[in-house]
Design brief:
Layout: H1 2-23, H2 32-53, H3 58-77, H4 89-112
Helix pairs in contact: 1-4, 2-3
């Protein structure tokens, strides 16, 4: 009874890891350039807030703003077409086979190497 419980827990844990990997993504991957631009815009807003609070003086704010704007322009030059690469069927089949083989190995070992014969 203990072995049945352990087997069920193992199968559940393996399924929780393997099923999402085999399923793939539901949509296109987010663009790195779009993410970077969002971060830089947030940094520009933060500089404006720091300037209002008096944390930064005008010269420091202008220098920081100039650097962030330079980086923002650099993201436009980068190709942001990161597309989702579909996983070929043969890789999915191979993953399923390996998964079954790994589950079958301990069971075969337990049967063949059992001291009871």
């Amino acid at each position: 009874m203990l072995w049945l419980g352990l087997l069920l827990l193992t199968v559940g844990a393996v399924a929780a890891v393997v099923v999402p990997l085999l399923r793939g993504r539901s949509g296109p991957a987010p663009s790195r350039g779009a993410f970077d631009r969002a971060v830089y815009r947030d940094q520009l807003d933060e500089i404006a807030r720091d300037l209002e609070r008096g944390t930064l003086d005008v010269e420091q704010a202008n220098a920081a703003r100039l650097e962030i704007e330079r980086r923002l322009l650099a993201t436009d030059a980068v190709d942001e077409a990161i597309t989702r690469v579909p996983v070929p069927r043969r890789h999915r089949r191979r993953a399923r086979r390996l998964g079954c083989h790994r589950c079958d190995g301990p069971l075969s070992h337990a049967r063949l190497a059992s001291p009871r014969g």
